[in-house]
Structures are given as structure tokens and as C-alpha cells.
Design brief:
It contains two helices and no strands. The protein is an all-alpha fold and 74 residues long. The longest helix is centred in the first third of the chain and has 26 residues. The termini are far apart.
């Protein structure tokens, strides 16, 4: 029970990080980690956001290489 809950919270945290990465890449707005005064917490936040960047880039690459997605022109 506790292990399942921990896994669920971990997946939720990765999804939030991935959404934040998508916001950064689509709009240019990013969380300002330089405003975090503690270097340990700043490093932890940058690592957390980096995980979301990696997941978002993997999802984007798989969509680009998929036959089910195509780029729309505006």
C-alpha cells in the first residue's frame, strides 16, 4: 500500500515537471531557480525540472517520428 502511494506521487511529480517543461518550451516562461537562496534546494529544483525536460523531449521526439502525428501549418 505505501509503495503504491509512493509510486503514484512520484509519477504525479514527474507529470507536473513535464507540464512545466512544456510551458517553458512553448511560451518561453520558466521557473526562476536563481531566486532560490539555498544552493542545495536550487540544485534539487534544477534536477527536478531537468527530469521534466527529458521526458518532454522524449515525448516530442516520439511524436515527430510517429506516423500518427503531423505538423499543422497556421
Amino acid at each position: 500500500m505505501a509503495l503504491g502511494r509512493l509510486f503514484h506521487y512520484t509519477v504525479d511529480a514527474v507529470l507536473v515537471s513535464t507540464v512545466l517543461a512544456g510551458i517553458r518550451q512553448s511560451s518561453g516562461f520558466a521557473i526562476q531557480t536563481s531566486a532560490i537562496p539555498d544552493p542545495t534546494l536550487r540544485s534539487l529544483a534544477e534536477s527536478y525540472l531537468g527530469i521534466g525536460e527529458k521526458i518532454f523531449n522524449m515525448a516530442q521526439a516520439s511524436a515527430i517520428n510517429s506516423e500518427y502525428f503531423r505538423k499543422q501549418t497556421r
